[in-house]
Amino acid sequence: MSAETKKPKATSTAGKKTKAAEKPAKKPSGAATSRTGARKQAARGAAAPRSARKARTKGKPSFTEEMIARLEAEKQQILQEVAQKMRSESDTHKFEIGDIYDIASSERERELALTLGNRDREKIAEIEDALERLRDGTYGDCEECGEPITEGRLRVMPFTRLCVECKSRDERLRHVRGRHEEETGLGIIERSELEEEEF
Q: Are residue 54 and residue 152 in the same domain, yes or no?
């Protein structure tokens, strides 16, 4: 009988060991929990909310890479066109012999080339700015409201800085301001004409 009593004791001891192993580990003290919780909370706070992460285009490497390649290619194309214009203009000036009308026409062409040059410089600056925003992770965020700009809009207008809503609001304000300035300017002109007639 003593042998039988030993076996159940051994079984019960083994049973206790398995129960102890199944028990969850003790929770860390309050200070340790708050530090761990604070770290997790900070990590969550640093990341964008799930809905915003889905909507943002910067989280998609393929789109980002596509836009960088597209902008770089467009920049190279503009630079090549400018270089070609400069070469053709310098070739034209080598053989420039003619009357005053030819010279005037040539001057007009140079003015046009300078205007196009300004447009090209502005476009290159926009491309550089868009590339910088792609690199720093702000590309695709509206500069007015901070909301994500849709991929479709970015594909059509890769330099855009505003979402559709903010751009529409901006254009309406410009239109209203333009009309106000126009009306104010016309009023000043009319008054000055009346004053001239009085003299």
A: yes
Whether the pLDDT of residue 18 is over 90: the answer is: no
Q: Which domain holds residue 106?
A: 50-162
Q: Model confidence over 164-193: pLDDT tens digits?
A: 999 999 999 998 887 766 666 655 555 555
Report the alpha-carbon angle 10-15-19, nearest 5: 150
Q: Does 15 fall in a domain?
A: no
Whether 80 and 103 map to the same domain: the answer is: yes
Confidence (pTM): 0.49
In this predicted model, what pLDDT tens digit does every residue of 27-42 receive, in sequence order?
Answer: 444 444 444 444 444 4
Query: Hey, what are 10's tokens?
Result: 């051994």
Q: What mean pLDDT, rounded, does the chain reach?
A: 70
